């Protein structure tokens, strides 16, 4: 019984780590050979696999977005640690173009990227996103200000850039059971009160929408209307079953 429980718990850990980081499950499998200091062994295995993944991913057609950059960077080092910052070279170029446009309009602005894709395997989704499985999708964080309306470089409302919703309640979709349209109402009061930086967020939206390689962009319709980009043909609504997009921007090429 104890052995069954051990196999089950390690399988769960491997599945969870694989879903979160792609390589984490393999690192745990390697660490299982070590009895003492298993967490240290896991960290060492993970670090080794991480470095191998970063160097091998370009051979598979994926490149990492910058963890530190002057105009574009990942919103949190966590995305880099978890290998969720990979895109195709083409999308990396598009993201850099867009961030350069934003910085040209608002000097000193750093565009923050959120989830991209994992470094390997087309078709493996980057949960909880269903579509981030081929390196051709990327999420951007909104820009925020302090109470006085001053731009807060590198800052979002939630620590990971997601789940701080701009629209109160859900003005778009009726309540449903089978949906990824999480509300997280209990979470909302925990975020700092940082107003949306409408000027920079609008510039980011316009730069993305006008990029010739863009296929589509997801943003909740009421927010798109507020920011004046509602009529663009590449602006789409993702539907009521998928995650809401009033906490971040989704774009794909
Ligand atoms: Zn997305």
List SSEs in N-to-C order. HHHEEHEHEEHEHEE
Q: What overall geometry do the principal axes of the alpha carbons give?
A: globular
Radius of gyration from the alpha-carbon trace, in angstroms? 19 Å
Summed over residues and divided by their number, the pLDDT gives a mean of 93
Helix percentage range: 25-40%
Features:
253 residues, 2 domains, 8 strands, 10% strand, globular, binds zinc ion
Structure overview:
With 253 residues, the protein is an alpha/beta fold. It has two domains: 2-58, no CATH class; 62-252, Muramoyl-pentapeptide Carboxypeptidase, domain 2 (2-Layer Sandwich). Helix content is 34%, strand content 10%. The chain contains seven helices and eight strands; from the N terminus they run αααββαβαββαβαββ. The chain has helices at residues 2-21, 24-31, 38-56, 77-81, 89-105, 198-209, 221-226, and strands at residues 63-64, 72-74, 86-87, 111-113, 137-141, 216-218, 235-236, 248-252. The protein has a four-stranded mixed sheet, covered by helices on one side. Strands 1-3 form a two-stranded antiparallel ribbon. A two-stranded parallel ribbon has the order 2-4. Helix 1 runs antiparallel to helix 2 (24-31) and helix 5 (89-105) packs across helix 6 (198-209). The longest helix has 20 residues, at 2-21. The chain is globular, with a radius of gyration of 19 Å. The mean pLDDT is 93. Zinc ion binds at residues 129, 132, 137, 139, 250.
């Amino acid at each position: 019984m104890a052995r069954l429980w051990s196999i089950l718990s390690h399988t769960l850990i491997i599945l969870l780590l694989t879903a979160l980081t792609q390589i984490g499950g393999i690192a745990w499998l390697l660490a299982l050979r070590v009895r003492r200091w298993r967490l240290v062994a896991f960290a060492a295995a993970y670090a080794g696999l991480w470095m191998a993944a970063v160097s091998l991913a370009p051979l598979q057609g994926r490149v990492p977005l910058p963890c530190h950059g002057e105009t574009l960077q990942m919103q949190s080092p966590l995305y880099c640690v978890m290998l969720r910052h990979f895109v195709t070279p083409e999308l990396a170029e598009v993201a850099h173009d867009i961030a350069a446009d934003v910085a040209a309009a608002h000097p000193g602005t750093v565009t923050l990227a959120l989830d991209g894709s994992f470094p390997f395997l087309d078709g493996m989704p980057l949960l909880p996103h269903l579509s981030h499985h081929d390196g051709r999708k990327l999420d951007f964080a909104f820009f925020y200000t302090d109470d006085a309306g001053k731009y807060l470089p590198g800052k979002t409302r939630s620590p990971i850039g997601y789940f701080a919703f701009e629209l109160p309640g859900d003005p778009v979709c009726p309540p449903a059971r089978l949906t990824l349209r999480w509300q997280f109402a209990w979470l909302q009061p925990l975020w700092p009160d940082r107003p949306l930086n409408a000027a920079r967020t609008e510039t980011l939206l316009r730069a993305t929408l006008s990029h010739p390689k863009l296929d589509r962009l997801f943003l909740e319709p009421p927010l798109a209307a507020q920011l004046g980009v509602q009529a663009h043909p590449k602006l789409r609504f993702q539907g009521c079953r998928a995650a809401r997009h009033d906490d971040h921007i989704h774009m794909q090429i």
